[in-house]
Design brief:
It is a single chain. By secondary structure, the chain is α/β, with parallel strands linked by helices. The protein is built from 7 helices and 6 strands, in the order βαβαβαβαβαβαα. The longest helix has 18 residues, at 130-147. The protein is globular and about 50 Å long. 28% of the residues are buried.
Length: 173
């Protein structure tokens, strides 16, 4: 039997942390190995416990998730960091991915999305919450169109369908 995925939870709200812990520990292939209520403790625990995945909130006291993610990339560059947040705006997403986060999942999403995201980044892949995929792809398409001098337009039905399938994890096969 393969060893369980070791997850560290960094979340300042105890009720949320406990709920996420119950969800993760209910999975046969995962276990929560530690918890942190702020970014500084998250760094210390990540160094001490060497988890496979660090589940990180953005808004935390003492050291927020963005700064903690940046610092962890210098002390534990191979750690997989999954951002768990309520923030849907592009600014946070871009900054955290640039800082070294492997994935971004929303607290508003179904619990199955969180579990899927943990498994995805633990396997070495990136993860983006499906509810953000259209927004990100739309921004990419608009930038590419403006670089080519094209006018801004709506996606065709087929383009929308392809993006939806990508958000569900399908490949081009």
């Amino acid at each position: 039997m393969d060893p369980k995925l070791r997850v560290l939870i960094a979340e300042d709200h105890q009720t949320v942390r406990e709920g996420v812990k119950l969800l993760i520990d209910s999975q046969p292939d995962m276990e929560v190995v530690g918890e942190a209520g702020d970014g500084q403790i998250a760094i210390e625990e990540a160094v001490r416990l060497t988890p496979d995945v660090l589940l990180m909130d953005i808004s935390m006291p003492n050291l927020n998730g963005l700064k903690a993610t940046k610092r962890l990339q210098t002390v534990r560059p191979n750690i997989k960091i999954l951002i768990l947040t309520r923030h849907t705006d592009d600014g946070y997403l871009q900054q955290l991915l640039s800082a070294g986060a492997s994935g971004y999942v929303l607290k508003q999403s179904a619990p199955t999305e969180l579990i899927s995201a943990i498994r995805t980044i633990a396997a070495g892949n990136a993860y983006l919450d499906p509810s953000l995929t259209r927004k990100v792809m739309g921004g990419y398409i608009n930038r590419a169109s403006s670089l080519r001098g094209e006018t801004k337009g709506e996606l065709s039905d087929r383009e929308t369908e392809v993006l939806r399938l990508i958000s569900f994890g399908y490949s081009n096969k």
